[in-house]
Amino acid sequence: MRGTIVTKDIAAASAALQSGEVIGMPTETVYGLAAVIDSHEALTRIFDIKKRPRNNPLILHISDVMQLDEVAASIPEAASALASAFWPGPLTLLLKKHPSVPGIITAGLETVAVRVPNHPVTIELLKAVGKPVAAPSANPFGSISPTEASHVHKYFNGQIPLILDGGSCAVGIESTIVGFENNIAVIHRHGTISEAQITAVCETTKVHSGGAKPVAPGMYPRHYAPKTPLIFSNDVSELLQKFSDRKVGLLYYGEKPAGIESCTVTCSLSKTSDLNEAAANLYTSLHRLDACWLDLIIVQKFPDDGVGRALNDKLKRANYGTIIT
Ligand code: TXA
Ligand code: MG
Fold it and tell me: Which CATH number applies to 5-207: 3.30.10.20, 3.40.920.10, 3.90.870.10, 3.90.1200.10?
């Protein structure tokens, strides 16, 4: 295959999808690696290109809640309420699958993951395609998710024909994933739609306990990881002092921490301590620092609540297994 084209041409992206190609697709959360629901070959290629285990199911993207009946066999009341409250938006629902949804998408599970993305370019693309589109995040399995078309290009140049450029992702981290047990909402993956927001709509909410077998990819212990070792702490000044003889990149939030002068590169995720702004900047900043040949990336921990909880969860997985020699 020749080099991958980065384009804003929605018709070209739609034609490529319809002819059974895998393409890069923008959403408001992160970029996805997309294929139409009924191309077994393209769906298989998503797993191959990402080097993703086949037992890790894919999210379907639909243009409108009206399309939900095509992919879900039944919709609990709590799910309808959440869809009305948060779609289009960064919320994925796990629903009993419609018999027509291919097993490769659900990895043989009885449930299907589905969401309506909140990005005008994505919605226009989904409408042009006219059928549901499967898309996991467009990163090799385990690495940092892409929030710009250039990140997808860096990962998959030459492996896909086209990336539809929808600009920088406004949300910046993956959707919140919610399943249902007897009409009770169960949070499987934290995102910018917080537990408190879900509970405000559903009354009773549980957080999935995890367990040995991950049911969502964000539940793998190591994920979202840069190549550079990453550590995080409430007290970054202490870490900066400890590693003052190394080439350190710092990601911080709010006021400048003491000791910042010793860093080779620094990125402020939000000067006003706005967690949504920090989420929008997290992966983009990690991509930038990971390209700087640093010894270490130090990240300031977030308040462990709401969006901060989702961000800390990403940092924990990016740090898992890190050894600093
Ligand atoms: O924001 C997002 O959710 C982005 C954009 C592209 O929409 N997508 C995304 O996809 O993060 P991915 O594949 O990286 O993470 C979604 C995960 C699946 O990999 C899978 O583990 C989980 O959602 N999932 C999908 N179907 C599932 C199912 N039936 N039951 C449990 N988990 C499921
Ligand atoms: Mg992913």
Answer: 3.90.870.10
